[in-house]
Amino acid sequence: MLSPLYWWQEFVRQLQELRGRPRELSLGIAIGVFIGITPTIPLHTVLAIALAVALRGSKLAAALGVWVANPLTIPIFYYGSYQLGRFVLRLPELALPPDYSVLSMVRISGRVTVAMLHGGVLLGILPAVAAYFLTYRFTSSRRFQGKPSLTAPDTGDTGQ
Fold it and tell me: What CA–CA distance (Å, rounded) separates 119 from 28?
């Protein structure tokens, strides 16, 4: 089994392979994290890239950021999204209908979907903001990819 340390090192390695300014990379990661937390799993990558295009963030970083949603985190995100959305919308606890008709299941799924979407958007805000600032700090550092930072002042020193 692969350890969380391995996954973190792999994420950092992939981030280091991306090219772009710290703002673009950070915005892309933040968008990906935000979309990754929302309950839109079949469309995570498409939505993240579209939002990155609209907001001028890195499309590749956005695609990388959605991987915050994985088989271990998705159940937590989805449960949290539903509970937060249910709380915010003041919906009653979910109860299965006595008749298991298709129409009754469609009604329940509509309420669950609305609650999860509302909750997912709210749940994704704080991690996205944190991801932006952490990624910006990392990509602005002089150690990023072993090169001078793109935002570092040019000293004009040629090393001769």
Answer: 22
**Cα(156)–Cα(49) distance, integer angstroms:** 37
Looking at per-residue confidence, does 98 or 63 come out higher?
63
Query: Average pLDDT in the 140-153 region?
Result: 59
Candidates 12, 29, 22; CA nearest to 137 is 22
Q: In this structure, are residues 88 and 118 in contact, taking their beta carbons and an 8 Å threshold?
A: yes
Give the span between the Cα atoms of 20 and 147, in whole angstroms. Answer: 13
- DSSP result, 16-30: HH--S-HHHHHHHHH
Region label for 139, one of left (φ > 0), alpha (ψ between -120 and 50) or beta (otherwise) = alpha
Q: 39-49 pLDDT, tens per residue?
A: 999 999 999 99
